[in-house]
Automatic annotation (TrEMBL), chain A:
This is Tripartite tricarboxylate transporter TctB family protein. It comes from Plastoroseomonas hellenica. Signal peptide: none annotated. InterPro entries: DUF1468 (IPR009936). The chain crosses the membrane at residues 12-34, 46-67, 88-116, 128-146. Residues 15-153 form the DUF1468 domain. The keyword Transmembrane applies. Keywords: Membrane, Transmembrane, Transmembrane helix. It comes from the Bacteria.
UniProtKB/TrEMBL annotation, chain B:
It comes from Plastoroseomonas hellenica. Residues 20-441 form the DUF112 domain. The chain crosses the membrane at residues 20-39, 46-72, 109-140, 152-184, 204-224, 317-339, 359-384, 396-429, 471-490. It comes from the Bacteria. It holds the Pfam family TctA. This is Tripartite tricarboxylate transporter permease. Keywords: Membrane, Transmembrane, Transmembrane helix.
Length: 163, 507
């Protein structure tokens, strides 16, 4: 808490309200748990209510702190942080979304290679071809390791069917 | 079984070719991920959890422990050469280590860190071997009520005592507890917090949450604040300790190990506090003729002590994990879920029902320590090359593994959506200084605490006073209250005496 800051600090207020919202979600979900016909000293709803109540209290506490100036405005990490890099975030988000859209359709290797290339671009890499080749090698390696060594089922895609 | 018989048994199992191979693989992998910024042991073990379906418990745990110890060794390399702590326990090492590297003494800094890690790891593992059975004896006398109280104490210490704010630590913990509640209640079979989504009936997967917090959230945050600044990797130079360096290191190694181990054992977990204490101790005790090196050219004592404390604390964390089934770090929590995946109930009975496994594990820790000091000193050149992987490709690769680890759980896109969703939450947690480890601990320990609570109340026939009328349980709960309220009361007292610093404190 910085002594210098007075008044509402909006970013922290958002964080506090988010925790409050989580508490409300918990409360709602605890409320809709069907009451068990089985005998139990502590039913299935007790702990969910406690956890939701805890989140509400903590959220209220954080909100109160945020209203009195917040906690993060004076933090070294925040003060010295470089400005938000929306270009990098956008490329990264595009990579994650591309993966979501493609993975069931084209399989893990292709979807993750697209994601790899976009993530490289997000962090400023400009060598598209090299990134695609590296990405293909990394995803194929990961696929072989998980499916052959760890025996995890990664599903079948176009490239996976060939090996 | 007493410790020496146990160790003899353990070594007889651990020295087979297969188990030595698992230890070597774990050490190698652990050092590599420790060196790489952005990857930690909790994430790596989480991604490797599927191995529990195809490999024996002994092999898997030797691998995991190798990774756990190896990451501690590797973390110091990054701190010293790059001035970027690879994991939280290495933050203090970076202080003096990076300064030594800057003034051309990277070699001795790396050597004292590796040998100090070896000394402390060995001291810590000896501690596990001899303290473990004693804790088990005590723990066997505890009933569900005491267990529940112990878990409450654990919750309080990992969330409210460590870290910069009790409120934010508790928020993380309760977020974890909430995630742990999702799924079918194991006592009554009722679905809870599933929002009517059938995929959530099995609960939220621990791997998914760990990957979201430690890989996706971290990458998102990095992108958010991305600038194309090139990091400077300092040259290693000669990896030798002079006679003088040895003389200056031995004391800090032993003091660091002595400081670190008890901190790890206490259900407080965390390596930040013992490393910091060790640093200030060495700064106080240093020979006046070297005192000026602290904070200027880098003092070897300031690397040797904290690095030893870091490793001894990491070893200490295994004591509550193996003897009580209480995880006090994110990595320990993930390992606990590996036990559960084998159908092994961690807790005091582990030393009896799984004596082979436990002692083989402890023996492997000794072996891993020897392997690590050998891997780290002559092979330092290899680790430096790993450091040179450019950031774009490194984080793109991390996300590939995050995706496959999560998609492999059930081949469901819903899991990936959840992964990215929790990843976004984790990015904001980083921005607003909420710790992430309590989320994982709450998620794993929460359901266990609920079970203990229900058992205790079934035994007491619904009488809630059982937690305060049983003396041991009451003592533990009082400790928890003291841990929660103590710093606040002290803060208020200090403020009244006008000692309170301008910033910091508990909000």
């Amino acid at each position: 808490m910085s002594e210098a800051r007075k008044g509402v600090y909006r970013p922290d207020l958002g964080a506090g309200l988010f925790v409050l919202l989580l508490g409300l979600l918990g409360l709602w979900q605890a409320y809709v748990i069907p009451v068990s016909p089985l005998y139990a000293q502590v039913g299935p709803t007790a702990i969910p209510y406690v956890v939701a109540g805890g989140l509400l209290l903590i959220g209220a506490g954080l909100t109160a702190v945020a209203l009195r100036g917040g906690w993060s405005a004076a933090m070294e990490d925040v003060v010295e942080a470089p400005p938000s890099n929306w270009r990098a975030l956008a490329f990264l988000a595009a990579g994650l979304l591309a993966n979501l859209a493609l993975i069931d359709w084209l399989g893990f290797v292709i979807a993750a290679t697209v994601q790899f290339t976009l993530v490289c671009a997000a962090f400023g890499s400009r060598r598209l071809l090299r990134d695609i080749v590296t990405g293909l090698a990394v995803t194929l390696g990961a696929y072989l390791f998980f499916s052959r060594v760890l025996s995890v089922n990664i599903g079948a895609g176009i490239l996976e069917g060939l090996i | 079984m007493d410790s020496l018989t146990g160790l003899a048994l353990g070594f007889s199992h651990a020295l087979t070719l297969a188990n030595l191979g698992w230890a070597l693989l774990g050490c190698f992998l652990g050092t590599a991920i420790g060196v790489l910024p952005g990857l930690g042991p909790a994430l790596t073990i989480a991604l490797l959890l599927p191995i529990t379906f195809s490999v024996s418990a002994t092999g898997a745990f030797i691998l995991f422990c190798g990774i756990f110890y190896g990451a501690m060794y590797g973390g110091s390399t990054t701190s010293i050469l790059l001035n970027t702590p690879g994991e939280s326990g290495s933050i203090i090492t970076a202080l003096e280590g990076a300064k030594m590297a800057k003034s051309g003494r990277a070699g001795p800094a790396l050597a004292t860190a590796a040998i100090g890690s070896f000394v402390a790891g060995t001291v810590g593992t000896l501690g596990i071997s001899f303290l473990g059975p004693i804790v088990v004896e005590l723990a066997l006398k505890l009933g569900p009520a005491e267990y529940f109280s112990l878990m409450v104490l654990c919750f309080v210490t990992v969330s409210a005592v460590l870290g910069s704010s009790a409120l934010r630590g508790l928020a993380s913990l309760f977020f974890g507890l909430l995630l742990g509640l999702v799924g079918v209640d194991n006592q009554t079979g009722q679905p809870r917090l599933t929002f009517g989504v059938p995929e959530l009936l099995d609960g939220v997967n621990v791997v998914l949450v760990a990957v979201a917090l430690f890989a996706v959230g971290e990458t998102l945050y990095l992108a958010w604040r991305w600038t194309n600044a090139e990091a400077v990797i300092r040259p290693v130079g000669r990896l030798m300790l002079s006679k003088e360096d040895w003389k200056r290191s031995i004391g800090p190694w032993l003091r660091g190990a002595g400081l670190g181990f008890p901190f790890g054992v206490l259900p407080a977990g965390g390596t930040e506090m013992p490393t910091m204490l060790s640093y200030y101790t060495e700064k106080k005790l240093v020979d006046p003729k070297h005192a000026h090196e602290f904070g200027t050219t880098g003092a070897i004592e300031g690397v040797a002590g904290p690095e030893a404390a870091n490793n001894a604390a990491a070893a200490g964390v295994l004591v509550p994990m193996l003897t009580l089934g209480l995880p006090t770090s994110a990595t320990a929590a993930i390992m606990l879920s590996a036990f559960q995946s084998y159908g092994i109930q961690p807790g005091p009975l582990l030393f009896q029902t799984q004596a082979d496994l436990v002692w083989t594990l402890i023996a492997s820790l000794f072996i891993a320590n020897v392997m690590l000091v050998v891997l780290n000193l002559p092979l330092v050149g290899l680790w430096v090359r790993i450091l040179k992987i450019p950031t774009p490709q490194l984080y793109a690769g991390i996300l590939v593994f995050a995706t496959i680890g999560t998609y492999g759980i059930s081949n469901s896109v819903i899991d990936l959506v959840l992964l990215y969703g929790i990843g976004i939450v984790a990015m904001f947690m980083r921005r607003f200084d909420f710790p992430t480890a309590p989320v994982v601990i709450g998620m794993i320990l929460g359901p266990m605490a609920e079970q203990a609570l229900r058992q205790a109340l079934t035994i007491s026939q619904g009488d809630w006073s059982t937690f305060v009328t049983r003396p041991v349980s009451l003592c533990i709960l009082l400790l928890a209250v003291a841990a929660l309220a103590g710093p606040r009361i002290f803060g208020a007292w200090a403020a009244r005496r006008g000692l309170k610093a301008q910033s910091g404190g508990i909000d």
